[in-house]
Amino acid sequence: MNAHHPWYVLSYAMSKESAILEDCVEQLQEIPEGGIAVLPEYVANSIENSEIAFTKLREVCIERKINVITTLNIIPNDLPHAEAGKNYNTLTVFTKDGEVHTPQAKITPQSFERKQYDEKFPAINVGDYDYLNIVDIDINGEKKKVLFVICSDMYTLMAGIQNIQDLKVDLCIVPGNFGNGAEKAVYRTLNAFRQAGIFETTIFANPYQKLKKPTHTPLVQQATDYTSRDQAEETVELTDWDRIQLVKENVAIYPDEQVPSFVHMASLTTMDNGRMTIGMSRLAVDVKVDKYPKVIYF
Fold first, then answer.
1. CA separation for the pair 298, 295 (Å, rounded)
2. Structure confidence at residue 1 (pLDDT)
3. Which residue positions in the chain have pLDDT lower than 70?
4. Any bridge partners for residue 93, and if so which?
5. Whose CA is closest to 241, among 169, 185, 154, 158?
């Protein structure tokens, strides 16, 4: 275990889906019994490879008695308010006991996640979701409240929720697949929410890219961040005006049809001091705060 907590924040190298899964499974061999591994978004993004990853990750968790968190393109088994038979970018929690929970789905899928604009790009085709669900977890008898924020759903913290006090939790966990530069916007936003006392601890996982030439610019930047609020510091109020400023400083908005792939999206994330992206189709989403009805036992 880590010295003070059971969380292990991992990354993976962007590649074809089979290679990503192999990379993740290899890293999971190093997680000690009872550990909780947080992987970036989309260990697999196609339906076929998500099914393969689902089976393999559950198998590894049972064999090694560990827990894993990531997202997959699957039909969730117990997601509140899910539309029957619909695939979502689904937050998937595998426990050491073989249980699988799907307490959250992505609210702001990017344009190319929602629709395949060209056959040369991957067919993901996930549905939209309109809820942020507070989740109760139990780690060896220690109870905590968690909010899972999938990648660009960071935007909903700034502009999708009327009362941010509804989001007050012990842990905010962000499995990301942010384009290069956007990770800076994530750090800035999470820091503001920690300082306000909305989140006590934040966890952020993002993949990286192995470059063939060091002079090339990567599409993504690695993140394996675990940060807790300094309890000795006074909280700093986060007003609605402050949240408007976060949007202005950290978000790039685009017409969906102009961003048909991840590479197109990554051309926007390096703007200014780094920006996360939101398609026009999800800009005005009205997010409702709800609760996942089960306790997740780690």
1. 10
2. 56
3. 1
4. 69, 101
5. 158
